[in-house]
Design brief:
Residues 65-91 are annotated as: Disordered. The chain contains two helices and no strands. The chain is mostly helical and 91 residues long. It has a domain at 22-76. The longest helix is centred in the middle third of the chain and has 34 residues, at 39-72. The protein starts with a helix and ends in a 19-residue tail after the last helix.
């Protein structure tokens, strides 16, 4: 796997983390807003917050699994082969 490939994967992980943070912030804001709303509206908002929580869990799980898969394959190459020097090629 090339340095460019590693940079792309690191970028994807960073993107996932930013999206998770943003979704978490939105969920907190909606939850706080539900405290100000009437009963019917509050219930709908909390229902949306529950969906956001599930989306966040799915994203975290997918990000974690992708990182674990890269670690299990050695230096991140699809076949698990190490670089010619036997070390991680990201250096």
């Amino acid at each position: 796997m090339t340095t460019h490939d590693h940079d792309a994967l690191d970028g994807q992980t960073g993107l996932h983390q930013r999206v998770i943070q943003q979704l978490t912030r939105v969920a907190f804001e909606l939850s706080a807003a539900s405290n100000l709303a009437g009963d019917g509206v509050a219930e709908r908002i909390e229902s949306v917050v529950d969906v956001l929580d599930e989306v966040i869990k799915d994203l975290r799980r997918a990000t974690f699994e992708a990182a674990a898969d890269r670690r299990q394959t050695g230096n991140g190459s699809p076949d698990g082969a190490e670089s010619a020097t036997g070390s991680d090629s990201r250096h």
